[in-house]
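Quick question about two entries, pasted in order.
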Amino acid sequence: MVHFVGSCDVCQRQKANNTTSSKLLQPPIPTKVWSDISMDFIDGLSMSYGKWVILVVVDRSSKFIHFLALSHPYTALSVAQIFMDQVFKIHRIAPNHCQ
């Protein structure tokens, strides 16, 4: 029976869809520039000036982007240090950060 239903063209076209479609994400809209940022890593690049990784920091309001080069292996401390030196020092970012 399982083989028949699995190979029956009519049965496959009439099969009910058991999955529900997911809703679109609607993140909150930032009210101030640099009040809400997202960060991500671009890894697996070829080495350039001794750096292998790019940390991407994006302001969700203005879409302004910082690209920060990192060496391998990077640590939480090294990422925090370059973030503080290159982004926070310039923009004095508020506490809402999403990944």
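Here is the second entry:
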Amino acid sequence: MMSSIRKLLIVSAVLCLLWGQAAVADVATKPAINIIKKPATTEEFDMQVRLARQLINHKDYHGASALLEPLLSEIPNHSLVYNLLRQCYDRLGYLPKVLDLANAMIEQYPNQCRYRLDLARVQVQMHQPQDGLESFYKASQLAKSDQEYLAVTNSMMSSGFAEEALSLMESYEGRIVNPSAFALQRGILLEAQRLYREAVLAYLPLLADTTRDAVTAERRLLALLEFTASSALAEATLLEGISTSSNLHGLKALTAYYLKVGRLDEALAYTFQLDTLQERNGQALVRFMRSCRERSQYDLAISMGEYFFDHYLQSPVMTEAYFVYADALTQIKRYQEAIAVYENLVAYSPRVQDQGEGLYYIGMLYLDHLAEYETARRYFDSVATHYQRGIGHVRSQVARPYCDLRQGKLAEAKSSFARLTQMQLPEDIAEEITYRLAVIDFCAGDFDSAKVELQRLMVDYPRGFFVNDAMQLLMVMDRVGENKALMTAYAEVTEYELRRMQDSMEAALVGITEGPLGAALADFALFRLVNISLSENDTQSVLKYVQSLEEGFPESYYYPYGLKAKGDIYYSDTERIEECKLIYRKLLEEFPNYPFTSEVRQKLRDLEDESIG
């Protein structure tokens, strides 16, 4: 990136050409602020503002401020120039200049709230709290709308004047149009003063809305219910409101809280009470099912689903109930029952989109869980052909090549994926297809093409879902180098992984760790075997592979990950807690920069607290 001086010279040169100034050679000999003449026309003014914006976008705040200062001196009350110049000074840390700017604008607009607010903020930043507080009070007196009152309140809160903001908010009564707009801020301030009952009462009215404030209020209300110091009082306040009125939102909050902390009887009782208040439309029951699924309480979700379908022939959330119920059945491997639920959904729903999505999920059950690939293909073909609306249509087209991939038909899968690249697809799906094509080339032995495609993926999708996988495969290729035999062996591992052939993949990885040519990848292969064994809850195999890492590759990047896995196993074994502590201490002392450091530190602290207790 060019230096700030060079940018400013170029900007000045452009202005010279526009305004008939002296030659560019003269520019370098004069200070920038003297070069830039005050614009004579509106067009010149707009040009200078645009150039200043460009410099700000490139983080050249010195250059931008040099352009803006002459403009503000000519038009002292120009709010746009003021805002841009204040932004520059803020970024540069020129607080006295920000102070002067705010005071200058106050002289021009003595009755404007916003400039008093700017003055208050910078006074606080300059460690002048009393002056800042007085400016906040003056700003509140000048406020003329709810938005301005809210801006004053938020600024005072962020500047550390919580108590003063709460007192000031009380004085707004009769001056503001919509008091509920201040409910969130009021609740936060009351929380800060540990007035938990009052905070709950402030948050409750917000829950009827769907705004960002409502979401924040619900989250904070649940936090009050979970926080030890406030839990009992928050719960009592909600229960009191429920006993005196039909408080739907309080019931929802209590139900979510009871479910989260495992008080299932109360969660169920309030769910049914909520359903009664909502005229038995089933929404509360489906919300309960959804919450159970999100917390991996699949048996509870299924039990509620069975009750729902036994008692509700019609409901505005019937379709969602089918989807949640079928997914819960899938999670506990009751695949045929899940298929039957999806079939009922297809028969029930009048929406083509829902029908297509239901059939797509049936296809995925056959693909991922039942290994009936041709049956899965028939479902995907049906959705792609007959249900051309909704997400099921696109997903089915993307899923079809996997039917070939799982059967080892790499050429057919590659051809199908390649055809999909000609379609207009969402970015995440386009990235997935790019990655799969690269991996297929790798499995087929076309390592050079695979490398190019993986590198392109990292450029085209720098924050994509498959970037880490691409980096890992590129790392393997770099470590293997020209060792074609080892590259082919790892390509075999990758193909088994694509085809979900777990036993074959493990055997191939073990072969790499034991073979004479596998030294370049042996530690990585052991690391992968550790993770596979963890996913299968095979702790004995985990410990075996970690021991191999420890004995053979103590300097490996992957060794600390294996050591952590060993520590986590001992963490759950009451007879090996002391060994666990030793492992965690070693990780913190010798490998402090690994991403698991915070987790390990917290676990060690918990173990030591238990020992003291």
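Reply: Residues 1-37 have pLDDT under 50 and may be disordered. Residues 81 and 368 are 60 Å apart (CA to CA). Hope that helps.
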